[in-house]
Specification:
By secondary structure, the protein is an alpha/beta fold. Helices cover about 50% and strands about 25% of the residues. The chain has a single domain (about 5-150), classed as Nucleotidyltransferase, domain 5 (2-Layer Sandwich), CATH 3.30.420.140. The chain has helices at about 5-10, 50-65, 85-95, 110-120, 125-150; strands spanning about 15-25, 25-35, 40-45, 65-75, 105. Helix 4 packs across helix 5 (about 125-150).
């Protein structure tokens, strides 16, 4: 597990899909990217339960989508300091290590706000925004990370 893009890149095989996760207290947004690491797409939002059940769902995604690594959003405070949610996301990522895949912790300070702003701009209803914001935030996080990977390639 790392927060350094170059270190994460060194742990990855050449190509393969990545799974982006926006870990919240009630839901987990999931997004995938293509095997060439060029575009991220929101996939689903799962309701949080016990970690074992969340892990089973993620394990299913890993095997079904041929995932080679994770990008987990790290919600830092605006000043870069850590919060309780930052620690919760770190703990979640540490528990994900049992799947034995590389994990990148990605600064996601503005992901939900940026996605919400974009959805409002295209006139998505409040109800629909609530349904999709987490998986879209996961895609935003993952896209930032794959853009970072492209910059070091």
């Amino acid at each position: 597990m790392t927060d350094e893009v170059a270190t994460f890149r060194a742990m990855l095989p050449e190509g393969g899909r990545l799974l982006g996760l926006d870990v919240g207290s009630k839901t987990i947004g999931m997004a995938y990217c293509d095997a060439q690491w060029s575009i991220a797409t929101g996939a689903e939002t799962i309701n949080r339960r016990k970690f074992a059940k969340d892990l089973d769902r993620i394990r299913t995604a890993v095997s079904g989508q041929q995932i080679v690594g994770f990008v987990v959003g790290l919600p830092l405070n605006l000043d870069g300091s850590q919060s309780k949610q930052t620690q919760a996301s770190r703990s979640f990522a540490q528990n994900l290590q049992q799947l034995d895949l590389p994990i990148l912790l990605w600064d996601e300070r503005w992901s939900t706000q940026a996605v919400t702003r974009d959805l409002i701009a295209v006139d998505v209803s409040r109800k629909r925004r609530a349904e999709i914001v987490d998986k879209m935030a996961a895609a935003y996080i993952l896209q930032g990370a794959i853009d970072g990977l492209a910059a070091i390639a």
